[in-house]
Each structure stands twice: as C-alpha cells, then as structure tokens.
Design a protein that fits this description.
There is one protein chain. By secondary structure, the chain is an alpha+beta fold. The chain has four domains: about 80 residues, no CATH class; about 150 residues; about 70 residues, no CATH class; about 100 residues. The chain is built from eleven helices and 17 strands. A five-stranded antiparallel β-sheet has the order 1-15-3-11-12, with no helix packed on it. A four-stranded antiparallel β-sheet has the order 7-8-4-10. Strand 16 and strand 17 form a beta hairpin. Helix 3 packs antiparallel against helix 11, helix 5 runs antiparallel to helix 6 and helix 8 crosses helix 9. The chain is elongated, with a radius of gyration of 45 Å. About 25% of the residues are buried.
Amino acid sequence: MSSFSTGLYGSTISSIVNNVNDAFSGKTSGIDVSTVVSELMQIQRQPEVQLQNQQTTINSQVSALTSISTQLTALYTSVNSLKDIFGAFSQNTTGSSDSAIVSATADSTAAAGTHSITVSKLATTSSSYSGYIPSGTSLGGTQIVINYGSDPNKPMKTDTINIPGADATLQQAASYINSGSYGATASVVTDSQGSRLVLVSKTSGANGNLNVSTSAASFTTAAGIDAQLTVDGVPVDSGTNTVTGAIPGVTLSLGAADANTPVLVSVQPDTTAASQAIQNFVDAYNAVIGSINSEFTVNSTTGSEGVLGGDSMLRSLQSSLLSMVSTAASGAAQYVNLQSLGIEMQNDGTLQVNSANLSQALSSNFSDVQKFFQSTSGWGQAAGTQMLQLTDPTLGPVAADINGLKQTNQGLTDQINDFELRMSAVQDQLTTQYSSLDALLQQYPMQLQQVAAQLGSLPNTTSSKS
C-alpha cells in the first residue's frame, strides 16, 4: 500500500471511530451513515483510482502519438512534393522584356528558353448598333437575326431572336436578349438624339463578327479582327488576345500592338518554388524530430521524461528519420545527399538550409537537383517509399502503437466497469451494517433510562451494609 493510501486509510478509520464515539457518548444523535460509508468507499476504490491513473497516462500517450502522426503525414506530403514530376520542381516561371505588350505564363510541359515575339495587331470584338429608335416604339413581336463569322454568306453560327410581345420597350428587348444563351450581349445607348440598341459579340476576332438584320431598324457593324503576331519569326493569327499553342506549354497575353518592338519572353525553371518546397520539407521534418526530442528530454523540475520517454517505438522512429535524411543517392551527378545541396544536419538531429549553397545549386545545376529528388534512383523516391511505410494507417509503427494503447485502455475500462459492479454491492453492504449499528446506538440512551428507572424503584434501606 502506498504512503498516500496508508495516510488515507488512517485518517478514514480515525474519522469513523470519532463518529461512532460521538454517537455512543450522546454528543450526536447517531452515526452519520452516509459520511461513514462514503469514507470507507474511498479506501475500497483505491485500486480503481490506480486503473484510472493508468488510463490518464495512456490518453496522454495517445494524444502525443496522434500529434506526431499528424506531423509525419505533413512530412510525407512535403517529400511527395519534391519527388512529384508535376510538383514544385516541374513549375516554370516566365519573364518579358516588355510586359505591357506581351506577358506569359508557362505550365510544367514548357521547355526552358527565350522567344522573340512581335505583336502587330490586337484582336478586337465586333459590335453592331441600330439607328435611333423613336421613343415609344414597341419591339414586342420583333424578330432579330444575327449571323456570326468573317463571311456573311457562310455564317459560322446564326441566332434567331424573337422578342416577346410583352417586351415592348427597347430596354425590355435588351434584357430579354441578355437572358438567353445567344452569342451577343445587348445594351441601350441614349444620347441627345435618342436611343439605340447595341449588340456586342461574345467572341472576339473575325469569327465573332456580327451581321444583324431586323425589320425594326437598320444596324451598322464594326468588324472584329484577329490578333496578328510573329513568334520566333513564325506568323501567328489568334481570334483572342490570349494565345495558346504558339509556344508549347506557354500562354501569351497580348496587351498592346507595336510592330516595331520585338519582345523577348523567357521560360525558366521556377527556382523560388523549388526552394520553398525544400524549405517546407525541412520545416516538416524539424517539427517531427522536435516533438520526438521533447519526449526524451528530462524535465528539470520533475526529473522525468515525457509521457513517451519509455516508448521503444519512438526511439526506432527517430533512428529511421535520421537515417532517411542521411542516405546517399545516385544518378544526380555531384549531388549525392542532402548535405551536398546545402541542407545541413544540426547536433540535435534537425536540419537547416544553407541558403547560399542551395541557391547556387538551383541556379547553376537545376536539372541535377531535380534528378536528385525525382529520378528512380534518387533520394526523393527512397524517402517517399520510407515515409509511405511510416505513415501507413494500419501497419505503420505509430499507428500500431496507438492501436495497442487503445486496446490496453479498453481493457482497463472493462476492469473499471467490473470493479464498479463489485463496489455497488460493497456500498450496499456497508450501508446496511452501519445503519444497523446506528439503530443500536440510538436505542442505547433509552436502555440506560430504563435501567436507571428500575434502579430507582428498588426499596430504600438504612443498613450501612445495604
């Protein structure tokens, strides 16, 4: 029995004895049965307290392991970002010598290089406007036919719009057109001479040219034109000012036309994205190692380690992670490990990025750094496989440890439930016993009075012997 239990036992017994003595001597009207039984049950429940304390420890261990599991998943994600052929190392960035004329974006399929682009014309959008329509003129029941395309005789599309009879005003007619799935939008323009119905094509360039006919009014059309540009000397025609296909994987955005100003557009690997992906990996790794280290650090106040300090699995996990970041890889020329890239291990097992060394590697040997993380024999593939095993939700070491603790916790819960059933019977028994004792003690004063009365009824005697 622990010193705590011994102290609780002694104080409880003392309290109960005092309670009985007070009742026996008449200081109280009887035993406080509820208090006595409650105090005795505290002693009886000491084994249950120990089981509950074990559960508290297990819950703390599960919580700590769950946090580490979450950090491991984040680490796995960061490793995948490095080895993914469509990830951070596959991103490109672009530059333009005159972004007011041409700017660009590039996807992961674009090849690095520089291209000369000259924009002679921007794509414009066709519009068509009616003559002035007198105020009060009803367009209800009017039919408007719109042909689209560069050749009015061979339209690429035709819209036949029948304005409902209820839509009498010019504005109602415009609203009806806009509510439909037509190839043009409508608006009403009003000036000092009156109002006009204006139609604007939803398609830019020559293919979106409007040819409008209706009995309600005559329409004047401003034709749209295609954008005209040369890409590395090759003429390109585009119906929009967003040009795709001229350079594989690159989208050009035309902002202005200047036939006398060639613009240089460059495509290069996005070293900023790659550097950030590496930093994300380092941060995720340090978070896991930091959590593990904290469990093995002795608290200066309590003199004990963390709740997982005695967990052998955690030692094994720590060793696996340290081995992972120290492993050498082949097939990446001069870069054989993280250290060679400028990712340096510290004394506590955490990593730190040497920014100057990493920047030099990315800017001068980007393809070799990419191979280090993405080739089949590279570090990224090996690390990804190892992290997949460590984070397996069933067979992973952390998951297995958590499952084992949860099973132990359930076993303790079952023991506590069984113990509670026994304690209920013990409490009933103690309540019965002390209630009986209380009844006896409450009868004691009456018995004393009866004895005194009997003694007082005996005849008096004057004999000294009597």
